[in-house]
Amino acid sequence: MDKKNGLLLVNLGTPSATTPDAIKQYLTEFLLDRHVVDLPSFIWYPILKYFILPKRIPYILKHYQKIWIEGSSPLLHYSKLLHKKLQQHLPNIKCELAMTYGEPSLQAALNNLKSCKKITLLPLFPQYSTTTTLAVLDKIKQLNDTNIIRSNIHYIRDYADHPSYINALYLQIKQAFLEQGQPDVLLLSYHGMPERYIIKRHDDYIERCELTTLLLIEKCLANGITLPIQMAYQSKFGKGKWVEPNTSDILRNLALNGVTRVHVMCPGFSADCIETCYEIDQENREIFLNSGGKHFHYIPALNDSQQHINTIIDLIHQTES
Predict the structure, then answer these.
(1) Neighbour tally for 117: CB within 10 Å
(2) Residue 240: its pLDDT value, please?
């Protein structure tokens, strides 16, 4: 029998439970990765251990408890559903799901795919970044060098401008407008990054986010959606200078300037997570409404939607052609 091809989906990661120990374990692994924080370890580790973790763990614990779904985080919940549905749509491809940090692990997923003749690696980050996508690729290379797997691995760098992805986002917007009415402004909120990474690492993440925004605006205009569409960046961490504008500032200013209805979409997040479910749909909702806004709607991530499945299938077929 011919060996199957494999598909490896990789997302960022999540604590395994809403407990201090689980959150500490996850945050430690995540924040010690040099792709994420590139300060010298002799400086960063004491700061992380004695100042960051003691403050962040109670904060994150409280908010995760509010958004936990059926015994897991939203990110893991929706990633598992997506994986399951993709396997049903692709019976001739062996599909696996892994996280860069935490469980399910990359090593376990690669072990499960070791009989495949070819593996397509899809980091579920639509816009390439050294902080996310490159972290996956480097970890895969490290595992591959230890002879865990010898199969031919092909990776998809990103899909920021792929027509199926842009169409999926457009359909999400269209559905939201049908259900909620058209807002005054649509805000696209992407995860931020330190400005120094752009220059130091030659990271083109911001360019990829801007390209997604441009193509989505064009798609909306071509289909009669002419409202203002803005973009901003969220999730600033630490005291360094991050890319701007900041999502919270934009929402506050929109409300103060008379905008009463706003919808927010996060195109860079393939699955809903604490950054969308809490930071956007709760924290930034409050900022907008407390500043005078009247109607705030968060448009969900693609999650396990049929549009997301179609996008991934198109990406796979493109690599095979």
Answers:
(1) 11
(2) 87
